[in-house]
Amino acid sequence: KQWYQRRVAITAGETRKKELQKLDATKYNNDTGVEELWAEKAFRHAQVYYKLICSINCTKLKLSKFDEELYQNYMVTFPRVKIDVIDVDKLKSEAAKRRWRSFCRMFEYHVEDYNFGTLLRLDCKDGYSEANTTLVPRVQFLAIEVARNRQGLNMCHLGKDPNPNSKKEAGQEEAVSGATEDNNQDNCAAENGKVEESGARDSEPPAS
User: Residue 201 and residue 208: Cα distance in Å, rounded?
Assistant: First the structure.
């Protein structure tokens, strides 16, 4: 699995345990296909968002129609919570979950897919990776990232290449392709040498 699929699978597994406590396990269907689609959608969203903060001044970036309401309510509800580097244990604590549930419900009928699982970076100075992400509801992602953008915390990504790994992979593929081509040429040359040598022996007159 890709790292983002593992991240979603871990969260889905935690949710599933809670659901199974309330449901008859024999009636609960674990649809891995839906889970994979969920992971792919979350990852595509992360890719698009990271490209945005790499190409646009984040302080001018608008993520939803309700950025102002999200920001004001976030600052009132979580005034002392650090957003540059998020402590995932505090974020996922029972007390924090209760406060975030109440916060998210305020936007239930305003933000589309308000509760959809979305990848959030823990350290705003770094990009998306398995070690630097956690899965949160979409409203929680929006509230934290709107606050980060308004405070200029994502400015460090402006001008960065949003897909540095793709160039590395392309370089590796070119190197492998080049090495294979050179190897094929060497093999052809060796084969041609053998053919020429064999032809020379065949053309020599038999010894009398």
Answer: 16
